[in-house]
Amino acid sequence: MKKTLRSVFAAACALVIGAFAVGCAPATKKIKVNPDKEKYVVGICQLVQHPALDAATQGFRDSLAEELSAAGRTVEFREQNAQGDSAICSTIVNSFVSSDVDLIMANATAALQAAYNATETIPVLGTSITEYGVALSLKNYNGVVGGNVSGTSDLAPLDKQAEMITSLVPSADKIGLIYCSAEPNSDYQIKQVKKFLEQKGKNVSLYSFSDSNDIATVVTSAYNACDALYVPTDNAAASNTEIIRNICYPSSGKVVPIIAGEEGICRGCGIAALSISYYNIGVKTGKMAAQVLLGKADISTMAVAADENPVYVYNPELCEKAGITVPSSYQPIQ
Asked: pTM to 2 decimals?
C-alpha cells in the first residue's frame, strides 16, 4: 500500500514538475474580436485636454465612424478624460474592461500603460505615444508590440528637431531641455536630442519638473541660464504653454526662443517645430481599429504606425519677438 501511495505521489510530482519544465508562462489569452456585430462600443481614455491630444481623438472618432459606416456598422464612443492624472486613467480603463467594450483607444502614454496593465483580451490601440518600447518597458521592441496592443506614434525625427536649434538660433551655446520627469517618452526624447547637440559642441543642461506645480520655477531657471530651449512632445508642458510663454517671451528684457516637439506646443510657446499631424495619426488609429473590429487584421502582428510626413512649422508672432526669420519652406501656424 505504501509503495502504491509513493508511486502515485511520485507520478503527481512528475506531472507538476513536467508542467513547469515545459513552460512556466501562462498561455496567451484569446483576444476578443467579433466581426459580425452590427454595433461596436469603443472606450476612449485621453490623459489630458490639450490641442494635440484633442486632435488625435477627433481624427480617431471621425475615421472609425466612417470606416464602420462604410461596412454597414455603427459605433458608440464612451470618451473620458483623466485630467492629467495617471491614476484616473487606470480607473477609466478598468471601467471599460468591466463593461466589456469592444476596443479601447488610449490617448497618451499614461492611458496606454493603464490599458496595457488592465486587459490582455480587449484590443487596445494607443495614439500620441512617442516610443512604445519605452512606454511599455518592452525588451527587444521591433515595431510590433504583440498581444492585444498596437497603435500610432507621434514621434518626428529627433535629430532634425535638434538641428533646428543650431540652424535657427546659431549663436545659442547654452541650450536647456525642458521636460516632465514623470513622462518616460519625454525622457527618451531629451536623451536623444542632448546627444545630438553635444556632438555639435553645444553646452546642454536638463531642466525637469515633476508636475505643473513646479514648472514655473524650473522654466525660470532655464530662462536665466540658457540662450535657447527645447520642449519635446510632453503632455505636461503642452498643458502649461502659457506659463512657459510668459517667462521666455517677456514684454521687456531678453527673449529665449523655444524649439518645440509638436505644433500645439509651438503655437503656445515655441518659435518653430517639426511636427506630425495629430489629427492624421488619430485617423490612422481609427482605420486600424476598424480593421481589428471587422476581423480584417490581427492586432498581435500589427506594426505601430506613424505620420510619415512631418512638417516644419513656425509661430509668426514669437519669431518676431525673438527676431528670428525662418526658411521659406516653413509653414506658418494659423
From this structure: 0.83
